[in-house]
Amino acid sequence: VRSIFEDVDAASQPGELTLSLSSAEQTVAAVSELEINRAQSEVSGLPAALATELWVTARAESCSLTREEFGAALVTIGEKYHYGLPPEIRPTPAQEAAFYRGLHLPELALAQACALGRDAAWQRFFNTYRASLTQAAIAITGSATEGHDLADSLYAELFGLTERGGRRSSPLASYSGRGSLVGWLRTTVAQRYIDHHRRTRRETPLDDQEGVAPAAISAPISAELDRLAQAVSRSFEALSSEGRFLLASYFLDQKTLSQIARLLNVHEATISRRLKRLTREVRKQLLRTLQSGGLSRRAAEEALGADPRDLEVNLRAALQTSQAAAFFDKSVPRTADPASQTDPDREMLNQARQ
Amino acid sequence: MSQILQPGQHPETDELNAFVEHSLPVHEEKKILAHVATCADCRAIAYLASSALPAESTVPRPTATPKSSLSRWNLTWPAVVALACLVIVIVIVRHHGKSQATFTVAANLERAHPAEPANARVAELTPPKSSTSQMQTSRAMAALSSAASREGASTKTTSIDGLASGKLQDGLFEAKKLPVPRTNSSPVAGREFLGGSSQGPMRAAVSGPGIQFGSPARVAISGADSIAVGALPRAAGISSNEGEVGQNAFSPDNAPKTTSSLAANQQSLATPKPASTPPPLMHYSANQAVTVTNGVPTEPESGTPSIRAGAVSRSAQLDKSATLEKHSVLPSHLPVLSVISRDTRELAIDTVGALFRSEDSGVSWQPVPTQWKGRAVALTVTFSLSEAMPGKQTSTASSSKVAANVNLGASAQPSMFELTTNEGDLWISADGQIWKRK
Fold first, then answer.
1. What's the CA dihedral at B27, B28, B33, B38 to 10 degrees?
2. Greatest Cα-to-Cα distance within chain A, rounded to the nearest angstrom
3. CA torsion sign, B71 to B73 to B74 to B79?
4. A242 touches chain B (CB under 8 A)
5. Which of A87, A209, A274, B350 is the most exposed place for a label (fewest CB within 10 A)?
6. Over the stretch B136-162, which tens digit does the pLDDT of each residue have?
7. Are B358 and B351 in contact (CB under 8 A)?
8. B365 in Cβ contact with B333 (< 8 Å)
9. Which residue of A175, A320, A329 is in closest CB contact with B38?
């Protein structure tokens, strides 16, 4: 009995249990073992089983991509896009796993491996996507020469010839796998092409640019026309995002129903109906706005019959925050001069008047 | 991201690509659409990337939906059309049946057993102003009384042939040729309306119980040369196949709103039968007005539920181009103007007003000496109501326009033949041979 009391720390207060040194050492060892096991059960923040499953599914090994590297890329993407869920929703492990499984895993592994500079991945990427990338560039530029040049420059960029902070940087690292890799390449080509177009336009001397007519001091605008212009601007401000997109695509960008339908993944007839409905709604909204401004209905109707050329309405500004003309619209930037109003604007106004 | 587009303000290439490929979640797609709607550059990138999509991947997914819905419609439309056709056919058949019933209405009144209480009210068959049916017959058919006699001795027939033939007026509609139904006449209740036209015989058969009153009596309307049958209101509920007039339709409750055209100006009286005999078949011509009272005979005043049926214009009555074959065998060889029967005894007037009498259901006729002034134009049979004695007219109901006051109850007794002259005088007779002025 005495030997037992000798093991008890004398400084301890009554009621406190003081373990012997040998027992404490055993407990610490057990905890560290649990942590090790837990660390081994997760791969870069992913459950080991899931990480292995995804890694195998992505055939990442053939791209010389380790499980940890691939897992880390997946976790980064998942956290960046919040696993495809709205910000207010906290994802469950099942939702996270579903998000991972919904990615284009083989293409994501290939892109990550290429971004890391793995030769095997580059060889595979070159064999798989070079032809399609060149074709997409030619299709976008409309020229074989320009297309080849654009594709070659993009290859160099993708390969990571540019360095940031002494490290090779490849745009492929930003590929998230939510879309196809070839689609991502097409979008990148389109973006580079527009960048190139902007750059070359900026390099063009101002004299050679399509003349920007000075804001002509036109005759004093009547109050009714001013009111109508304000009503038009207000009506467009009240449009929904889709309505704005449709009107801008159809009237400003001069896109066809087929192109709009393809982008919105609906049928052409649906776009046609929506456009008709939109123009009707815009007209009604115009009438309401004019009537709320003190005009009678008849006067509002007459105001809608005004010649669009008499109006100082920048529809592009009303429809989009980007004041730059659409890429497909080669016209000059909009001015306040009614004479500079382009045909799409007039067409839109005519539609609204009808 | 683009080197020119400011990062943070525009979606990344990866997001735009996902937007173009419609692989974004809804909330992100809305966000990208909202940006693309107002950003010409991003819109241009999206359209360029979209235009470079291979053909097989550019097929919008929802396009499958219209196709599938179209295919569903392709399957659905025939079924809808078939259903619509079926409904139309049913409506047409029912409508045709009702209209046919208007032609073939036979007021087949089941005479009540004498022990039963009398509850038949008035069913006044008068020409409605809105009646729009017209039926042309040109050839008289076999005598209905013969048909009745073929049915057996138990069936008694009283026939009153119509006055005239030809087209009827007064808003009558052009009649269609009646089909010739192969109706098996019931030995008791099956009756046939026989008519004819220049195009051929027409037959409207009536079988079944016919008009059901509270106290059934049986009346068959025998068409003369021309019978105008007004369009019965739908409330009459006359079925076409059996020529039945629903009991409810002719019940006192519904009677005021029911109108059928059977006869016009003249009135006939159904001959009551003794209780031991089967209900007689009373034939009315198209120009006869039949009034049947149901209930207390002293209440046939205005407001009494009635059935107005039939209309024959005077012009139609004057058209005497055809008469029933049966009565063309009158000794005068003239068309029959009016005919009435009681048991096997029949009286007939030809178009010149000569009266003939038959004791063998119209097989042989003997002329009756003229005992009245003027020209006989109508024959009717009156019923005495309670202790009516032969030769003694006691019917108070007949004081009104109701000429044929059929007391279908136990107290209904056959009474007198009545003859109306063109001067409006009324003559009565118990046997049809000896007439007295009323």
1. 110
2. 114
3. positive
4. yes
5. A87
6. 433 434 344 444 344 443 333 333 343
7. no
8. no
9. A320
Strand order in the sheet with B345-350: B336-342, B345-350, B355-358, B366-368
Interface of A with B in 18-47 (CB under 8 A): none
Which of B37, B45, B58 has the CB atom closest to A262's CB atom? Answer: B58
Contact across the interface for B41 and A194, Cβ inside 8 Å: yes
Task: Indicate yes or no: CB of A265 within 8 angstroms of CB of B61.
Answer: yes
Nearest alpha carbon to residue A297 among A307, A306, A284, A316: A284
Minimum Cα–Cα distance from A188: chain B residue: B13
- Give phi and psi for B262, each to the nearest 5: -120, -45
Strand locations in B298-344 (E): 336-342
CB-based contacts of B414, cutoff 8 Å, min separation 6: B271, B272, B273, B342, B381, B383, B384
- Per DSSP bridges, beta strands B288-292 and B266-268 are parallel
Closest by Cβ to A322, choosing from B34, B40, B50: B40
Residue matched to tokens 């930037």: A333
ipTM confidence score: 0.74
Q: What backbone torsions phi and psi does residue B408 show, to the nearest 5 degrees?
A: -90, 5
- What residues of chain B lie within 8 A of the CB of A199, using their CB? 4
Higher pLDDT, B319 or A47: A47
Q: B43, A253: Cβ pair inside 8 Å?
A: yes
Q: Which residues touch B250 (CB under 8 Å, ≥6 apart)? A: B123, B211, B212, B213, B236, B258, B307
Best residue in B1, B3, B13 for a mutation probing chain A (most A CBs within 10 Å): B13
Rounded Cα distance between B71 and B73, Å, is 5
Q: Tell me B238's DSSP state.
A: B
Q: How far apart are CA B68 and CA B194, in angstroms?
A: 60
Quick check: A242 and B66 CB within 8 A?
A: no
Q: How confident is the model at residue A108 (pLDDT cuts 50, 70, 90)?
A: very high
* DSSP per residue, A161-191: -SEETTEE--GGGG--SSS-HHHHHHHHHHH
Chain A environment of B3 (Cβ under 8 Å): 195
B 34-93 near A (Cβ less than 8 A)? 34, 36-41, 43-53, 58, 60-63, 66
- pLDDT band for position B67 (50/70/90)? very low
Do β-strands B426-429 and B413-421 pair in parallel, antiparallel, or remain unpaired? antiparallel
Residue A191 to residue B45, Cβ atoms within 8 A? yes
Within 8 A of B20 by CB-CB distance, chain A residues are: 179, 183, 187, 263
Of the residues B29, B36, B47, the best mutation for testing chain A's interface (the one with the most A CB atoms within 10 Å of its CB) is: B47
pLDDT tens per residue, range A309-328: 666 566 666 666 544 444 44
A23-52: burial string, b at 16+ Cβ within 10 Å, e else? eeeeeeeeeeeeeeeeeeeebbebeeebbe
Q: Hey, which residues does B10 pair with through a beta bridge?
A: B7
- Own/partner contacts of A90-99, CB < 8 Å, gap of 24 or more, are A93/A47, A97/A50
How would residue B97 be classed by pLDDT, with cut points 50, 70 and 90? confident
A82 forms beta bridges with none
Q: What is the mean pLDDT of chain B?
A: 56
Structure tokens at A151: 């594709």
Burial of B75 (0-12, 13-18, 19+ CB in 10 A): exposed
Tokens of B424: 């409006």
Q: Residue B60's closest chain A neighbor by CA? A: A265
